[in-house]
Amino acid sequence: MRVLRFSDRGPAVQLLQLALNRSGFGPLAQDGVFGLRTRDALIRFQTTRALAADGVAGPRTHRALMPWYTGFMRHRVRPGESFYAIAQLYGAKSEAVELANSAFSAQNLPVGAVIVVPLPFDVVPTDIAFSAALTALCVRGLTARYPYLTAASFGRSVMGRPLWSLSMGAGENRVLHSAAHHANEWITTPLLLKFTEELCAAFAAGGSLFGQSAAEIFSYARICLVPLVNPDGVDLVTGELQRGERYEAARAIAARWPEIPFPSGWKANIAGTDLNLQYPAEWETARAVKFEAGYTAPAPMNYVGPAPLSAPESRALADLTRRFDPALVQAWHTQGGVIYWRFGGYEVPGAQDIAGTFAAVSGYTPADTPYAASFAGYKDFFIQEYRRPGFTIEAGRGVNPLPIGDFDSIYAASRGILTLGALVT
User: Fold this and answer.
1) pLDDT in tens, 44-68
2) What are φ and ψ of residue 364, in 5° steps?
3) Is 27 exposed, middle or buried (CB count within 10 Å of its CB: 0-12, 13-18, 19+)?
4) Least confident stretch, 212-221, 257-266, 373-382
5) C-alpha angle 149-154-155 in degrees, rounded to nearest 5
6) Is 79 helix (H, G, I), strand (E, B) or coil?
7) What pLDDT is attached to residue 8?
8) Burial state string for 250-260 with b = 16 or more CB within 10 A and e = fewer than 16
9) In 10 A of CB 14, how many CB atoms?
10) Cα(329)–Cα(115) distance, rounded to whole angstroms?
11) Cα 140 to the center of its chain, rounded Å
C-alpha cells in the first residue's frame, strides 16, 4: 500500500479514512481528501500504537491498520483462554471466532496457537470507491472469516496485478460470475463481493438469502466469482492510479479521443484494449464494426485488440472458464437495467425463460444486444463455445461510472439474479 500524506486524494485515502473510522478514531467523512481531520485522527491512532506520530500513513502504519482494512485480528492463545474469552477482548462474536478457526477444538485451544478474530463489522465496504488494493484486502478478509470460501489468483493484469477468483459451495451446478470487464463499471466489483459476504454469512447462520436456503445453495451449486477483471483500468477511473508511466500512456491515448472524458469515460484495460471485445466469438465482425467507427488503435473504449484473447485479463478469464466448466455464466456490467441472453443465431434452450426469471426478481428487462455490441463479448464466447446459458446484466441506470451512492439500489435489484443464478439450471 502506498504512502499517504496530507493533501493526498483518492480511493487509498478513502480506505484510510474507513479504517480510522472502524478503529474508533473518527468520525471522518470518507471523502478521499487527506485533510486536517484525517491527519489528526491518524496521529491519534499512531500515538496509541507507539508509532512515529507524524501523520503519514507509511508501511508501519498500514500494517498497524491492517485489521481494520481486512476485518480481522490475529491473536495468540494464552493459557486458559476460550473462543468466548478471546471474542470478548475484541468485541467480536464468539460464534464468528469459532467458525474462522474451525480447525481448532473449542474445548482445548492449543496455547500459543495463532487464531483469527473477525472484527464486528462487515468486510466489504459499500460506500467508497474500489481499487485493486481494496479488492485484494476484501478477498483476504472474507477468506479468513469464512473457511469454506477459497481464493485463487488465476492470472495477472497488464500491470502485474493479480486477478482474483472466489469459490464456494460443493454442488454439481457450476456457476461463474464476473464483474468489471469495463473500468468505468467498477461498481459491479463490490456487488459481487457483497453477495459473497452475504451468502457466506447466511450459510454460517443457517439462514437464507433472497428466500433461498444458503445450505441448499451450497449443496446444489459450486459458485465461482471473479470480482475484478480489469484492475488497472479501474484504478485509473477511480483515481488510485494518478501518475507514472502507465498513467501518462493512458492519458496520451485518451487525448486522441477528446469527446471521451478522461479518466471517467475509460472502459478499456490500461493498454487501451476493450476486454469485452476480446473473445473468440465473431471477433472479426466486432473488429470490422469498431474499425468502421474509427477505433483502429488503442483507445479508451471499443478497440478490439490485435487478436482475440491478446489481453492478459481476457485470456486469463477464458482459461479459467474452460477449467471451471460452468453450466451458466453471468457477466456484470452497468448500466441500463437490461439482461442480454442471446448471441447471434445461438438460442440456448431455456435461456430466455431464465432471463425472464431474472427480470421478474430485478425489474430489469430481457433484451437483444444492440448490433454494434453484439460480438466478441464474454457472454458471446461462452454461449458459442458451450451452448449453455450466458447472460450480460447491465445493472443500474444512469451515466457510467455510476456513483457509489447508487450501490444499495443496484444491489437490491441484483440479489435475486445472483441468488437464483446458482439454482435455475
Assistant:
1) 999 999 999 999 999 999 999 999 9
2) -80, 170
3) exposed
4) 373-382
5) 145
6) coil
7) 96
8) beebbeebeeb
9) 28
10) 36
11) 12
Cell numbers for 229, please give them. 477483471
What is the helix (H) or strand (E) element at residue 177, kind and residue range? strand 173-179
C-alpha cell at 152: 485463487
- 306 by Cβ neighbours in 10 Å (0-12 / 13-18 / 19+) ranks as exposed
The answer to whether the CB of 189 falls within 8 A of the CB of 135 is: yes
Q: Which residues, in sequence order, are bridge partners of residue 332?
A: 179, 393
> CB-based contacts of 71: which residues, under 8 Å, 6+ apart?
118, 119, 121, 122, 123, 141, 144, 145
For the entire predicted model, the pTM comes to 0.96
The mean-pLDDT minimum among 252-261, 347-356, 369-378 falls in 369-378
Q: Give the Cα separation of 72 and 140 in Å (integer).
A: 9
Q: What is the mean pLDDT of residues 4-27?
A: 97
Q: Which of 185, 197, 313, 394 is flagged as catalytic?
A: 394
- Residue 370: per-residue pLDDT: 79
- Report which DSSP code applies to 71: S
Cβ atoms of residues 394 and 334 within 8 Å: yes
Rounded CA-CA distance 366/341 in Å is 7
Coil/strand/helix, residue 419: helix
Mean pLDDT, residues 167-181: 98
373 or 334, greater pLDDT: 334
What is the C-alpha separation between 62 and 198, in angstroms, rounded?
27
CB contact at 8 A, 377 and 279:
yes
Find the mean pLDDT for residues 127-132.
98
How far apart, in whole angstroms, are the C-alpha atoms of residue 132 and residue 229?
10
**Which region among 49-63, 187-201, 304-318, 338-352 has the lowest average model confidence (pLDDT)?**
338-352
How far apart CA 72 and CA 65 sit, in angstroms, is 11
SS3 of residue 156 by DSSP: strand
- Is 385 in the active site? no
CA dihedral 214, 215, 216, 221 (to 10 degrees): 80
Contacts of 275 (CB under 8 A, 6+ apart): 181, 182, 229, 230, 268, 269, 311, 313, 314
Asked if pLDDT for residue 369 goes beyond 90, the answer is no
Dihedral of CA atoms 250, 256, 261, 266 in degrees, nearest 10, equals -40
372 pLDDT more than 70: no
Cell of 177: 460470475
